[in-house]
Amino acid sequence: MEVKSPLEGIRVLDLSRVLAGPFATQLLGDLGAEIIKVEAPGRGDETRSWGPPFANGEAAYYLSVNRNKKSITVNLKTPEGVDIVKRLAKISDVFIENFKVGGLQKLGLGYDVIHRENPRIIYVSITGFGQSGPYRERPGYDFIIQGMCGVMSVTGEPDGEPMKVGVAWTDVITGLFAANAILAALIEREKSGLGQYIDISLLDSAIAAMVNQASNYLISGIPPKRYGNAHPNIVPYQAFKTKDSYMILAVGNDSQFKKFCEIAGRPELADDPDFATNPMRVKNRDRLIPIIREIMLRRTTAEWCEKLIEAKVPCGPIYDMKDVFNDPHVLSRNMVVKVGHPVAGEIPLVGSPFKFSRTKVEFRQHPPLLGEHTDEILKNLLGFSEKTLKVYREKGII
Fold first, then answer.
1. 3-state SS of the chain: helix, strand, coil percent to 5?
2. Distance between CA 318 and CA 306 in Å, rounded?
3. I need a labelling partner for 184 at 20 to 30 A (CA). Which of 33, 223, 312, 337 fits?
4. Whole-prediction pTM value?
5. What is the Cα–Cα distance from 70 to 310, expressed in whole angstroms?
6. What domains are defined for the chain?
């Protein structure tokens, strides 16, 4: 029997751009969904120009979240362009957008309109602050949301300035939540036969992703503080300088701490009442950490990792991206894939984390050129003639 991708047969009309929405739809595309990316003629997704680096004119940023999609260009400021989107929505399963609140409503493509066209459609709106609340009209940018969700208050050195995460973390988290919500709605639709509206915001998603730090505050009433690379609830669980670089020591329980002390040549530390249990180590971290810092300087990162891993004490090196993509384990897990591209040639992309036993993830389509599939989609799905396409193109509709 032919093995199929999990979402084969699902069509997604993607009016999102930049990162959160495109990341969500790329996940769905990797799982087999057909993704039709709708872009503005002549301009397209902003990330197409976000570089360097470029692969023969194609921005690495854009390439990172737009594989397994087909691109069509449609001018949504024209009645004909709006009609094209309505007609595509009528034969789609999911409609996803990240316009400002009310933006598509003004263009005649709000949920009420699309729902009338297709009651089974799942309509997803991604915004910075959501469709309700006093901040709903504010533009939402990852950096601003990182500041407002609390993550910057717990990131960085204790005596340093608040620090953002080094990737657009809230966009990625929001994309993950959006994809999960879409999958849940698709499952529910099998029971009810109806689609629904999904309101996803960067701020809500980022707050939810604060997990234990948010809970620490809600339970204690005390805002968590910055610990640099340390952990608020576990000690020792942080980065340490070694003889030749830095590494992570992540002692998760008392037996692991005892093993670490033995390997470090300081078994008495594990017997000291002030350090024998995790709550006591947390309480006395200011005394314990300087001792461990001095110990870690005695060996190289590779020497520590070899001995600690053998003893099943959690640890690891601190990689840059070159190290990541040269690691034999990463390569064995197919986390780098090569995709042929009509302009950039064969390009390397980050692989999918999905590993299925029976169904499969496929890399069927390179990140598309702007409008690369306009004619194909409009002819094959909507029945447009060559003459109509020519007229629409001359009028700037597509």
1. 40, 15, 45
2. 15
3. 337
4. 0.92
5. 48
6. 11-209+330-394 (3.40.50.10540), 237-241+246-317 (3.30.1540.10)
What residues form DSSP beta bridges with 36?
13, 70
Q: List, for residues 131-172, the tens digit of each pLDDT value.
A: 999 999 999 899 999 999 999 999 999 999 999 999 999 999
Write out pLDDT tens, residues 24-62: 999 999 999 999 999 999 999 999 999 999 999 999 999
At 292, list the tokens. 């461990």
H or E element, residue 188: helix 169-192
What would the pLDDT profile of 308-338 be if each residue is shown by its tens digit? Answer: 999 999 999 999 999 999 999 999 999 999 9
1 token code pair:
């029997």
> d(Cα 267, Cα 261) in Å, to the nearest integer?
5
Q: Are the CB atoms for 202 and 208 separated by under 8 Å? A: no
Tokens 């608040």 belong to residue: 162
pLDDT at 262: 96
| Both structure tokens of 298 | 């005695």
Catalytic residues: 171
